[in-house]
Design goal:
Blueprint lengths: L4 E4 L10 E9 L8 H8 L2 H11 L11 E7 L2 E9 L13 H18 L1 E5 L11 H11 L7 E5 L3
Parallel strand pairs: 1-6, 2-4, 2-5, 5-6
Antiparallel strand pairs: 3-4
């Protein structure tokens, strides 16, 4: 069985052949403007526009924790907007990350990756602004993606 590949770099620029699916965590409030989404928006306008429309029309769709939206941004590149955090701030109920929602969303990502025969690329999802703990997120990725034969690369930005 393969494992997660860790690299330094930008998850919006996966340097592998074939179809690539870039997964990231979004909040359930319709907010898009801090963290990894800024890197996505610098490269492609479609993921933000699709997420905002999905949120705006939430009374008539599946928008909510655990839901995942797939947006094609190039011929061989897709972005997965995964709703994995409740709100945007740490408060009385703790950090915004919701591990169960990430787990559910990753199951959707695995299905789509298999459909597209795609590798999956991501930052350390749920561990930036969402306040999650990588030691809790990593096993979800292994169970939902790696154990199903999906190649996963996790990107650490910076030096």
């Amino acid at each position: 069985m393969s494992e997660i590949t860790y690299v330094r770099g930008d998850a919006t620029v996966p340097s592998v052949k074939g179809v690539k699916l870039i997964a990231h965590v979004c909040n359930d409030l319709g907010g898009w403007g801090k963290g990894f989404v800024l890197a996505l928006s610098r490269r492609w306008p479609e993921p933000e526009a699709a997420y905002r429309a999905w949120h705006r029309d939430r009374a008539h769709n599946d928008f909510g924790l655990g839901a995942t939206q797939f947006v094609q941004v190039e011929k061989y590149v897709w972005v997965a907007n995964l709703i994995g955090q409740r709100g945007m701030r740490t408060g009385s109920k703790g950090v915004p990350v919701r591990y169960e929602a990430i787990d559910t969303g990753l199951a959707h990502v695995a299905t789509k990756a298999a459909e597209l025969d795609a590798s999956v690329h991501m930052p350390r999802i749920g561990c930036g602004l969402a306040g999650g703990d990588w030691s809790r997120v990593e096993p979800l990725i292994v169970r939902q993606l790696v154990e199903r034969g999906v190649a996963v690369t996790v990107y650490d930005h910076g030096e």
